[in-house]
Amino acid sequence: MTRHNETAGQYPVIPLRTEVQLPGHVGPLEIGREASVRAIEAATRDDNLTVIIPQSNPAVRDPGQRDLHEVGVRAEIVQVVKHSPGRFTCVMRFLERVHIDALVATEPFLIASVSALQSTSGASAEQLIATTSKVRDYLIAVVTDAQAKEAKPERERERERESREAKEHKEPRGDLTRAQVQAIVDPDKLVDSAAPYLELERDDLTALLIETDTMRRLERIIPSLERQATVLRLKADIGAELEGESSRTHRERVLRDRMRQIQEELGEQDDNAEIDELRKKIEDSKMNDEVRAVAKKQLSRMSQMASSSPEYNIARTYVENLLEIPWNVFTDDRLDVSAARAILEAEHSGLEKVKRRILEFLAVRKLAPNKHGPILLLVGPPGTGKTSLGKSIASSLGRKYVRVSLGGVRDEAEVRGHRRTYIGALPGRIVAGLKKAGSMNPVFVLDEIDKLAADMRGDPAAAMLEVLDPEQNKDFVDHYVEVPVDLSKVMFICTANQIDTISQPLLDRMEMVELSGYTSLEKLAIARNHLVPKQLGEHGLAKGQLEIDDDVLTDIIHSYTREAGVRNLEREIAAVCRGAAVKIAEGATDISFDRGQLEDLLGPPRHVSDTAGRKPEIGVVTGLAWTPVGGDIMFVECRIYPGKGEVRLTGQMGDVMKESAQAAYSWTRANAARLGIDPEKVANSDVHVHLPQGAIKKDGPSAGVALALVIVSAFTGRLARHDVAITGEIDLRGHVLPVGGIKEKVIAAHRAGIDIVFLPERNLKDMADIPDEVKREIDIRSMTKIDDALAVALGDAPATPEPEPAIPPPTAQSRGNFGDRLPS
Predict the structure, then answer these.
(1) At what angle do helices 125-150 and 187-194 cross, to 10 degrees?
(2) According to the model, what pLDDT value does residue 802 have?
(3) Cα dihedral: 512, 450, 503, 371 (round 10)
């Protein structure tokens, strides 16, 4: 770095986002940005000098010249402490203010050309002297108070210093003495020396830094010095009044007596009245003896405190929270199974598994009243009614209803509560839910439990282990309440879209009930009985003002929505109601929508059958997939071309699906002669297998059969039927193994217009879960080997086959080393 004189020259620049430093003291700086780290390293290799410049906009990460102020502070690096790679703490001696002439370099770090800052003053010499003297007097008063504190016993001073440094994460200020303040003649240095003793905001410090008029700098700091001096004077007066008291206990008693006298003069209620009221509430509550003893202990502590003390308010808040918990308050269950069944059927269509489980609980509850509440996990795609089902269950049981959303919850204290030592501590969401319900046996819905997260503050899923364990939740302890809370009578209902993100110990504590997507008939019933009346009411339409027949609803279901649930269906019905509201507002009376008017309101159909317009093709087979939002069909494509027997897999396939493709290719090659495929053609052809919608990741073994069939179709030239869908895992012997998600996959095939579905024979047990409507309209067949589906899914070769690429004669390289050609 070049230096023209003692100050002017070029220096590495350390930009500060939030801090502002003034000359005349020593202090630490946390260095974390890469450019700043490089600047520190360069300065330590040279002369340990750098320039500290505050940013005008703290949000900018990589500042340029326009992001920095024109005035900075030249500083000397005293010590560098390295915490980790790329993160330092530098102890700096801040020397003097300098003017930033220009940034001469920005890489690898900022380098600034600076010059000495020229101070000016528009005031007369007499005014400047008088104002300087005033600032000096105030600063002497502040410094004198600091010196008085230093006169405390050594152990007490050390303890206070360590506590202060731990809280503020900074070095000691380096206090001035009275003599040193009196020796300061330069007004600017006096201002810089006074700033560390004051609690100034960043904008105030910035103004002091960039101001070149000495008089204005003095005037800016005077109000803060006056305020500080006033505070010190008041503290001294209070100290003098208490100086005669012999001990802390005696001082508190005197102050309490004075406060009582003042309250009597003002006619205010005595503190004991509030404590007596709380004591009466405790005696009248239904809390057990253990909780009552804890509450009374807190009242005893409160009676020894002044009501203005923070501890008093913390104790009072704790007692009030104990009183708000509905100890031993239970609602009576409605144990009429027929009435409960009627309520569930009226409010929800389908969902037979859940309804049956609730009725079973009611029946058992009627025979065994002391049995603990069930803990259910409803798993299914969005929009299938998991959350609203909790409210219907509460209604059918006659219980209170509480819902807590757990999506995005990262802090364990959200579940267990905060400890009372923290300011603003509160009970966790479980205890807060009981307070809201007003009973100890509500239906408690824990929504989106699969979206719990964990970070440095703990794992809330681990905290849920005790909540959802029937053997432990009888004595659940919230960190705030610190006494056992009985959750054994609560009926917990958890909801999730998938179970992959739920920890196994937590999943083991819940009884899982799967909710698959709705069929078309179920959606029609839901729309007719629930969604249409709801949207008519929300849009201010009377029942007779708008008629939507079943044909219109069916068209909306098939042509405008493609989902497992009914949320989009409800939005489309709302759009129809808005169109009717416009016509009624224009003077129409009764409106009836038919199919022809749908396109005017909703636009052209957004969805058509995935098989509509399709025809049998070579190298295209329809597979079935499971997703967290329901089932879906999946097209598997394959093309062959001259090559060396290599296989290329595209379409965001996961590792498991890639291995399935490798197994399918190996099976095809091993059975080439039996399948009518020339082995030389296989050895001298490259195979490209692709799954469309490449932006979506796909994985799992269930596409194994489809992958094998599409490769056979490509090599033999046989047409693959477009109305056949297949799911199943394969092994190298050609056996078909069972897979999951059968109900969702078959419903997706039905929704897409598929006629024939092949399932593994060992999955036939899952047929019981498939709705009767779907089983009537789809031919569901079983398979134990790939050959079972081969004859049906692949037809004969086309009359005019696709032109085949010329296959070069085999070479030694093309015949060997097959096992290494698939990507890992």
Answers:
(1) 30
(2) 38
(3) -40
Amino acid at 233: R
Counting as low any pLDDT under 70, the low residues of the chain are 1-6, 146-175, 239-252, 256, 259-260, 263-272, 457, 608-613, 628-629, 796-824
The per-residue pLDDT for range 581-628, each reduced to its tens digit, is 888 888 777 777 777 778 778 888 887 665 555 788 899 999 998 876
Give 692-745 pLDDT, tens digit per residue: 887 788 888 999 999 999 999 999 999 999 889 999 999 999 999 999 889 889
Tokens describing residue 528 = 């007719």
Residues 6+ apart with CB under 8 A from 763: 728, 738, 739, 742, 782
Q: Rounded to an integer, what distance in angstroms lies between the CA atom of residue 249 and that of residue 367? A: 62
DSSP state of 309: S
Q: What is the mean pLDDT of the chain?
A: 83
| Separation of alpha carbons 226 and 224, rounded Å | 5
User: Can the peptide bond before residue 108 be classed as cis, meaning omega within 30 degrees of 0?
Assistant: yes
Cα–Cα distance, 711 to 668 (Å, whole number): 7
Type of residue numbered 585: A
Q: Which amino acid is at 349?
A: S
Please give, one letter per residue, the 3-state secondary structure of 231-251.
HHHHHHHHHHHHCCCCCHHHH
pTM: 0.55
Amino acid (one-letter) located at 545: Q
CB 709 within 8 A of CB 607: no
- Residues taking part in catalysis: 702, 745
Rounded Cα–Cα distance for residues 287 and 322 (Å): 9
Q: Could you tell me if 464 and 508 are in contact, meaning their C-beta atoms sit under 8 angstroms apart? A: no
Question: What are the angstrom distances between the C-alpha of 213 and each of 96, 221, 593?
Answer: 16, 13, 78
Helix (H) or strand (E) holding 757: strand 756-760
Q: What is the pLDDT of residues 354-363, one digit of tens each?
A: 788 888 888 8
